[in-house]
Amino acid sequence: MDASFWRQRWEKNEIGWHESKVNPLLVQHFNELALAKGSRIFVPLCGKTLDISWLRTQGYRIAGAELSKVAIEQLFTELGVRPNISELGKVEQWSVKHIDIFVGDIFALSSEMLGQVDGIYDRAALVAFPEDMRNRYTQQLMQMTKNAPQLLICYDYDQRCLEGPPFSITDEEVKRHYASTYEVRLLSSKEVSGGLKGKCPAKEKAWLLTN
């Protein structure tokens, strides 16, 4: 699944994964990260998620990474602010007070470019990568955030039932990626009402990864 796939989805406004409200599991479980106000939260593959605005109003600083410039233009328009844009290696940094979004390939982002990260909120990143890319992504994420604690939200379903994204992430896979670095704890598991995309029984799970 290459970059052009995601760029085209945003350009055509085919963004069924974009939620029209703040994710309930973020609101329910974010305090489990036990981060002080003012901490900097990294949101990989953030799109224009409303979760960024929620985190900001809770008193946190946000760093995001997103491939699509269209998504980030819409994000800042909806926030009602005009960002400063600067070149940073192979990515662009779009910034306003308390928000820095790195626009480009997340694999081109380094810990030096990203800066301090106190916590990670991954709702749409791990599930967006096909199986052959997920190990590379999780290693990249841990390296550039220096193993910051993480709230991870993913789906678990029969992958034969539905093509991703979002892809199915089993409990075993979460542990395979992260258990050697983090203490991995399942916070909640609930059935997706009506099934995933209205087609496939699925569970949405929230995981806490701490050092």
Describe this structure in words.
By secondary structure, the chain is α/β, with parallel strands linked by helices. The protein has a single domain, classed as Rossmann fold (3-Layer(aba) Sandwich). Helix content is about 30%, strand content about 25%. The protein contains seven helices and nine strands; from the N terminus they run ααβαβαβββαβαβαββ. The chain has helices spanning about 5-10, 25-30, 50-55, 70-80, 110-115, 130-145, 170-180; strands spanning about 40-45, 60-65, 85-90, 90-95, 100-105, 120, 150-155, 185-190, 200-210. A nine-stranded mixed beta sheet has the order 3-4-5-2-1-6-7-9-8, with helices on both faces. Strand 6, helix 6 (about 130-145) and strand 7 (about 150-155) form a beta-alpha-beta unit. The longest helix is centred in the middle third of the chain and has 15 residues, at about 130-145. The two termini are about 30 Å apart. The model has no long low-confidence stretch (mean pLDDT about 95).
